[in-house]
Write a structure and sequence with these properties.
about 45% helix, five-stranded parallel beta sheet, globular, about 500 residues, alpha/beta
């Protein structure tokens, strides 16, 4: 989506709210009285269509609290789109009927960390900031996906340790702000990961403790003891914004919005109810589930939704499908996903309390097929080296331990290997976005054209496959056979051969 398109309509801004058509939902509180309570790192489309909407729904007009300061850790794009419209944006819900629109008002400011890291640190350190939430994607945690350990040799982590007053990473900002709060005698804030990572709260807590220990043992011990990091499970399909979203937002409001978000009707947020001094918005009033153990919900979503998304992304992209909707419309891919769920994932997946996993996957199939949500396979395929361990490989390990086969999972792993090679089935270049892309492609080139050698080269990346899978002859054989099937049949026919 380009934000440079010239529009005749006036720009969305705070003054326009009082003149909005009755068909558009607008904030029901006085934005001038809204107080800050949350800083969110990674102010992308997902958070603005998920966590920000849950928060918007529970702001009390009589005492408006829990306003949000967003922060970009890399680029000014979002700030440049949102600042001219007073932080307002349109959220478009796309279901089976007409598109519905609402204007979201709780985003009070967007900061750009590289431009002024001190301003972001000051905002996080301030006493009225009670929660710092994150959607920085898997790679934003600077950790080893296979072990969960902090990558101490990561260039940005090294920089943050040397320059704590101007960090670059989410971990660096959080630890620097917690240190400042501790020095000032303030209670800590609650760091809240909203990324698709297994045990995301425990992972984030461990990274903060490890990072702090590299320079200050006392600070590390304080974080370990006094800073809770609740686990969460987030779920809503939010595709990247397109020109159609700009057009639909303008049609609904009569105003140009440079930063609309589009989302499906479904949403789910499961949160471990463990916050500093109990300070959090009453998200349960908007349908969030506050629980003592998020793990069963998180594992269910990562393996069933995200695992199937990865299957459709890699196989679908290789087979020429631009979107998840197109991929799930292919009978072979649809049958493969159904078998993947029914025969390989669900038999080794404990269900959360009261959840029917068969009904859950039926609902997922309907969500994937929603024609109004154009979720690109290329977008989902990003950062696969960071995603495979929790989405696919943990299930592989459990099936190996039980002596069970995993042909569908092996095919998806092989499809990822084919995808990161950088050429599709027609020999066209793929724009591979992955923090290990250069290393992965270098290993493939060194392996030559032999399928088995290419698979073994990929399995040598212990950051992805751990120390166990690459040395397991059965896993090597299964993925090598699947890779050869991809070369011989192509992605769609190879999927159809396994579909049931």
């Amino acid at each position: 989506m380009s934000s440079d398109t010239v529009h005749a309509a006036p720009r969305l801004n705070a003054r326009a709210l009082k003149h909005m058509a009755a068909s558009v939902t607008v904030p029901r509180y006085d934005r001038a009285r809204l107080r800050h309570g949350i800083v969110h790192l990674g102010i992308g489309a997902f958070f603005r269509a998920h966590g920000a909407l849950y928060t918007e729904d529970v702001i009390d007009p009589a005492a408006p609290d829990w306003g949000i300061v967003g922060a970009s850790l890399r680029k000014p794009d979002q700030r440049d789109r949102l600042a001219p419209q007073d932080g307002l944006y349109v959220a478009l819900e796309r279901g089976g009927g007409p598109v519905s629109a609402r204007i979201v008002g709780n985003l009070r400011q967007v900061l750009v960390a590289p431009e002024d890291p001190a301003a972001l640190l000051a905002r996080i350190t301030a006493a009225d900031t009670r929660i710092v939430s994150l959607t920085v994607t898997e790679k934003g945690y600077c950790h080893d996906p296979a072990t969960g350990a902090l990558q101490q040799d990561h260039a940005d982590i090294r920089y943050d340790l040397a320059h704590p007053e101007q960090p670059r990473t989410a971990v660096g900002f959080l630890v620097a702000a917690l240190a400042a709060r501790r020095r000032a005698g303030l209670a800590p804030f609650t760091p809240l990961s909203c990324d698709n990572l297994p045990h995301n709260g425990r992972l984030l807590h461990g990274l903060l403790v490890q990072f702090a220990a590299l320079s200050d043992d006392a600070l590390s011990a304080w974080i370990a003891r006094d800073v809770p990091c609740p686990a969460t499970m987030v779920d809503r399909i939010v595709p990247a914004a397109t020109e159609a979203d700009l057009t639909d937002a303008e049609a609904a409001t009569g105003l140009h919005d440079a930063a609309p978000v589009s989302h499906e009707p479904f949403r789910q947020w499961v949160i471990e109810d463990r916050f500093v001094d109990g300070q959090r918005p009453p998200w349960q009033r908007a349908g969030a589930e506050l629980v003592t153990d998020v793990a069963p919900y998180e594992t269910m979503k990562l393996r069933l939704l995200n695992g199937a998304h990865s299957a459709l992304a890699y196989l679908g992209f290789l087979g020429g499908c631009e979107t998840i909707g197109e991929a799930i419309a292919d009978q072979g891919l649809r049958g493969l996903v159904a078998r993947l769920w029914r025969e390989e994932i669900i038999p080794v997946l404990p269900a959360p309390p009261g959840v029917d996993l068969g009904a859950y996957t039926d609902q997922l199939m309907a969500r994937f097929a929603n024609p109004a949500v154009r979720h690109r396979t290329w977008q989902i395929a990003m950062d696969g080296s960071q995603k495979l361990p929790q989405r696919l490989l943990d299930t592989v390990r459990e099936r190996r331990a039980a002596g069970l086969a995993y042909p569908c999972l092996a095919l998806v792993v092989a499809a990822w290997m084919r995808y990161v090679g950088g050429l599709d089935e027609q020999g066209r270049a793929i724009d591979v976005r992955d923090p290990l892309a250069a290393e992965l492609q270098g290993a493939l080139r060194s392996a030559g054209e032999d399928a088995g050698a290419r698979v073994r080269a990929m399995l040598g990346f212990t950051a992805v496959f751990g120390a166990d899978l690459g040395d397991d002859p059965a896993f090597v054989a299964a993925v090598s056979a699947a890779y050869r099937d991809l070369l011989r049949l192509g992605a769609l026919r190879a999927a159809a051969a396994l579909a049931r």
